[in-house]
Amino acid sequence: MSDLRERVALQHAKRALVDRAEELHSRLSADPSLWGEYCQILRTLAAIAPLAEPGARGELLTTAQLADRLGLAPKTLLRHKKDGRIKPLVQKGKLLRWGAGQTL
To answer: In the chain, where are the structural domains located?
Structure first.
């Protein structure tokens, strides 16, 4: 399976698990027997969520993706680049790509 197909499959699985967890959460107080399934879904989500994130397999991130990961606006990230606080891994003209592990 290609990396893109794997990432898409993981994102679909993550969404389905989140949907199921939300459904179970609303029913836990009425039916305590659902706790086992609910906890298993949360463990599974915790295991796959990082793998579904952009950059998890070493692919490069866009400016928007890295800014989101760092909790910044894309313009702020570009300002930090201009000031020399951070450097993209790839820069060809206006094309910028960043590493998933980059920090300020």
So the answer is: 3-52, 63-97
CB 77 within 8 A of CB 63: yes
CA 12, 99, 97 angle in degrees (round to 5)?
90
* Residue of 104, 33, 50, 43 whose CA lies nearest to 72: 104
Which residues, given as ranges, of the chain have pLDDT below 70? 1-3
Q: Which of 97, 6, 17 is nearest to 56 (CA)?
A: 6
Decide if 77 contacts 66 (C-beta within 8 A). yes
Tens digits of per-residue pLDDT, 12-25?
Answer: 999 999 999 999 99
Instruction: Report the C-alpha gap between 59 and 99 in whole angstroms.
Output: 7
Residue pair 99/89 in contact by the 8 Å Cβ criterion: yes
